[in-house]
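step: validate -> pass
step: tokenize input -> pass
step: predict -> running
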Amino acid sequence: MRSARPAPPAALLLPIDRGRDLPLYRQVYHGLRAAILGGGLAAGTPLPSSRALADELGVSRNTVVLAFDQLVAEGYLEGAPRSGTRVAPALPRRADTARHGPAAGSPGISARGRAIVAVPMPALARGGTVPRPFRVGVPALEEFPRALWARLTSRRWRRAPVLAYGDVSGYRPLREAIAAYVGAARGARCTPDQIIVVNGSQQGVDLAARILLDPGDTVWMEEPGYGGARIALLAGGAQPVPVPVDGDGLVVEAGRVLAGGARMAYVSPSHQFPLGVTMSAARRLELLRWAAGAGAWVLEDDYDSEFRYDARPLASLQGMDERGRVIYVGTFSKTLFPALRLGYLIVPDALVDAFRAARAAADRHSPVVDQAVLADFLTEGHFARHVRRMRRLYGERQDALVVAVRERLAGRLEAPARPAGMHLVGWLAPGEDDTAMAARAAEAGVETPPLSRYSVHRPSRGGLLLGWAGYTPQAIREGVDCLARALR
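step: predict -> pass
step: emit ->
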């Protein structure tokens, strides 16, 4: 006989104060979290639906959904289709313990761990939530050829796939296909033996940090720059040094002044994240000269360079490297779909054995069947056709976003079109707080990460990142309408 489940509470007395500066969804979040940690909501207790709770509190349903999403991501709540949302049966360690030191008998985390935790986690890293405009890094998932991918997968399984351990460097036919692709499309110079298949670009950056850096080594980091790379570098014990970015990319001379003896420079030269600028040829050569003279490494993150709308994709920095100082990081998360979790490194010949050893120590290799299906997708021409189709589609969606912002947000947000990528920076008026604006946008139902999230030092002008690739023109226009209401 099943034990009786606790009934949903008839009412939740959560403190909501519209006069506070704290966004409403954070007030709901803090109220629910306090009730859970204080024992008012026991493990397994079902909660009212987001709509019912919103009506009870007199807030929008999106406000409650945002609070629920955050609590699910942190492990306080769990949800399942048709089962509603309930308090998790096993709760995470209290957050105040993490801030103020370990409780008696509980282990503390290292200084390196505290530095990692301090880096803001984007919504994309939490996962588990449906992307809403204008989340960054989301491709057009509805346009992916799922039926074709399913046929390729089924064919691979019918051919008695490799079920034993695979090659540490990756499935050989996939590495051959990647080498042919990057040589033709990105101007890279490599053999299949120089390619290491990894679980996405994040693991690629992590492996590079572990192999090439010792604890305490300094690394040039683009400012503003990609938080995921910062986390991986911190995990390797490195000390990221923020180096400013201008219209030509990372300012090499500033890096020399700030940390001339740095061991590595992390850059995204083809389409800098998050500003979207392209590193000029002169700046690329200057960076390579510095690396060769300093005996340093350059980690080139080429995360979405396939999507250029004014010309062919630019040649990679790796293809210009004559001294073997560049490690190239590529990924299929943006071009295909994020859940695939397959990326690759191109490493100099002298480093191949070291990276193979690091890959084996991490998790041996990526799933072989997925690698084989991707190899077929590349070699049979499906990948090239898909990228061409997405390039046209994304160009149209960027146009829709730029027009909608111009029509609905003139004078409040400037979002000039960019020749590449999957997002724009919407620039706020000087003096506007982008973090506060992003919180207001979240309450209105849209995700617009603030530019300051990606900066160590507060930027001179605030901005909101607007991803457009994963949203239809209609969804983009509706998202801009929500943003316009939030920014009034």
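step: describe -> The CA atoms of residues 55 and 439 lie 21 Å apart.
step: cleanup -> pass
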